[in-house]
Hints:
homodimer
Amino acid sequence: MDAVTKIHKEVQSILSDSRGSHDLDHTERVLKLALHIGEKEGADLTIITLAALLHDIGRNCEDDSNGKICHAEKGAELAKTLLEKHGFDQVMIEKITHCIKTHRFRNNKHPQSIEAKVLFDADKLDSIGAVGIGRAFLFAGEVGAILHNKDSDIPNTKPYTKDDSAYREYMLKLRYVKQRIMTDEGKRLAESRHEFMVEFFNRLNREVDGEI
Amino acid sequence: MDAVTKIHKEVQSILSDSRGSHDLDHTERVLKLALHIGEKEGADLTIITLAALLHDIGRNCEDDSNGKICHAEKGAELAKTLLEKHGFDQVMIEKITHCIKTHRFRNNKHPQSIEAKVLFDADKLDSIGAVGIGRAFLFAGEVGAILHNKDSDIPNTKPYTKDDSAYREYMLKLRYVKQRIMTDEGKRLAESRHEFMVEFFNRLNREVDGEI
C-alpha cells in the first residue's frame, strides 16, 4: 500500500465520527472535484490528493473549541505531523500545508499556488449547486430550523435557531460563492451550479406562494 | 371576525408547537395550493379552506401514539367537534370531514368529492418540487441522516437512521407521487414539480461524482 492510500485510510478513520456538513463524504466529494479541476488546470495531482484528503482534519478541534481554533491552521499542523510520519520531505509538506492553511473562506491567508487555488475552489463548489442546496437544508434540519420564510428579516435572523433557514444561508452566503472562485475550470463549474441554485430558490418562493 | 377566520387562528394555536415536515407552514402552503386548484376546478372554496386548515390537526396524536392512531381519522373527529362549536351544520361538517378523512396517502378511504380530491392533491404536491426537496433534506437533518448515498441499498436502508437520506425518500416515494394526483390542475402542477425534482436528483448524483 502506498503512502497516499495509507493516508486516505487514516483520514477515513479520523473523520469517521464527523457528522453533518463537513463529514467524510464532504472530503471525498472535494477530493473528486479537486482532481477534476486539478487535471484541467495542470496542477500536481499528488499535492491535490493529499491536500484535499487532509483539508478538514482540524474541524473537530474548531468545533470543540467553539470556533476559537481555526480548523485550517490546526489542520495544517496535524497534516505536517502525519506527512512527516509517512516520510514526505519538507518541500512537499510545505506545498500541501499551504493548500490546507489557505482553503478557508474567511481566512486572511490567500491561496498562492495553483494547487491551493484548486482546493479552495473544490471546497467552495461543494457548498453550491444541488449539493449545496441539500447541505443547507440538512444543516437547517440538524439545528431545528424551519423549512422556509422568504419574508423573514434575513440579515437579523439568528443562525442555529428555529428561525434560521436554508434560504438565510443562500441569501447571506451561498449566492456570493461564485464570485470567489479562482480557477477557469472552477468558474465554469460554479456558473452552472450557481444558476441551478438561483433557479431552485426562485422556484421555492413561487411554490410556497402557491403559484406553481 | 367570521367563523373561518376564528378557526384559522385556532389552528395556528393548535399547530404552533408542531415542528418539521408537518408544521403550521405546511398547512398554510397546502391551504394556498388547495385554493389555487379549487378555484380552477370549480370547487366550494369554504369547504376547501376549512378542510385544508384542519387536515393535520390530528398529527400530534399520531406522533404521540407512535403511528397507532391515524392522523386523518383523528383529525376528522377533532374537526367535527371544532366545527360544531362554531355552529356549522351537519351537512357541511360531513363534507369537510370527508376531505380530512381521505387526504392520507396510505389510507383505504379514497376522496370522492371534488373538494376532497383538491385537498389530497394540494397535500401531495407539497411533498414534491423544490418544497419537497427542501422538506426531504430538512427531515434527513432532523433524524441525523446523511446528505447522500446513491449507491446505498435503497429498499433495505432503514428510515430514521444515519444511513437514511433524502434520496431514499425520493427513490421509494416522492418520484411516484405524480401518478396519484387526481385533478387536472393538480396534474399540471405535479408535472412541473416532478420534472424539477427529477432534474435535481440527477444533478445531485452527477455533482457528487465530481462531473459537474
